[in-house]
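Aim 2, interim progress: modelling of the zinc ion-bound target.
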Amino acid sequence: MSLRLSFYGGAGKVTGSNFLIEGARGRILVDCGIEQGADFCAADMYGPFPYDVKAIDALVLTHAHLDHVGRVPKLVRSGFRGRIFMTPPTKDIAELILRDSVSILRQDAKRRGAEPLYEERDVDATFALIETLEYHTEKEIAPGLTVYLRGTGHILGSSSVRIKDEDGTAIALTGDIGNSPSPLLPDWEPVPDADALVMESVYGDRLHPPHRERVALLRDTLKRAIGKGGAVLIPAFSLERTQLMLYELSNFFAAGELPKVPVFLDSPLAIRVTEVYEKWGPTYFKNAAEEEMKREKSLFEFPFLTKTFSSAQSREIEKTQNPKIIIAGAGMSHGGRIGLWEAKYLPDPSTTLLIVGYQAPGSPGRRMAEGASSVRLNGRAVRLRAKVEILEGWSAHADRDELLKFAETALSEKRTKVIFTAIGEPSAERFLAQRIHDYLGGRAVVPEAGEVWDIAKDSVKKV
Ligand SMILES: [Zn+2]
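Predicted structure of the complex, ligand included:
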């Protein structure tokens, strides 16, 4: 018996994760994300799915990032009626992320003259199909196929997925692997018990600075930025990055390491996601953070933090004198409230723009990180005279050495016959595959989009 693995998205690309696993009787889709880059949503995403949606028994979501879940409501609209599995925190966050994207996707579709990817009612229909699954619980979710989730330390609730048939043949997919150790989340768990492993490679060819340095660097950069007297803008992904920033800011202020300046969390989505972190933290954080949470009640609150929920509250921020810190989305500066603050403050040389996350090629954030003198934000050109500071190491993704360590643990039981390096830019996927081969003696393959492989206990072959 064998399992068939098809790469429909996330091959040669960081975004658009979408993989199909077929057994003798059952079919499971893992992730159904949107591809993002220069646009919030790539043009291809509007087309039909390349497989029979109605024939799929179940969908498993590794985590709640849009590039892993963004096409689920479209899948449901296209006739998918199976069950959808994920961890309880992923469910809560995915609901926020999907509902938050409705209006931005509607604008994207309008610009293209296309039907929106999905509407609010499709999100409702999606949530009627969801069942939560805890880590470390084997469950049959399609005829003859079981699923097993483990933590990956990437964002709250993130998991790797192992799918096994009745014969014991197994394929595992990592989703995204975290930049462990995180101050909040438990470290990623090894996945040594699959015949084939699909692993992410976002930072397959790059190193992060050590964790201790990244905190000191953040503190020193913030001190310098506040010293300039201008606004400090942090475009942050609402999920995980924002909570990490709040956690570190709270520590800096409590230790008296930063001047007391107002901080604005200017993002309804980030405010709500932070509430989900507060809700699930006591059960899903690492032990030390759970203890800290019990002691301090909240890890993300501090006295000069203002959460601006409505746009009227957001507009008030302007009246607060500089220096001040504004944290807002979108993380790659594709619109959102940060786009408005960038348009206002980036032409001012006293402003500091703090880039703390991955910026996809072609995104406004990437252009600013690469030193553009002007950038298009919300449809208009903005001069960039602010200081741009790029802080490495805050990524929620493992770096190249950590990914190699993950691969080493995967190969430790000598069961895994092939590692596919996916979910990365092609150069990063190739680099990681080469290192798995050279350093670990493992077989590593860089799959192309559309490739199909048959995985059995004694052989793996491309179809
Ligand atoms: Zn992710």
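The CA atoms of residues 202 and 252 lie 30 Å apart. Residues 63, 65, 154, 176 surround zinc ion (CB under 6 Å).
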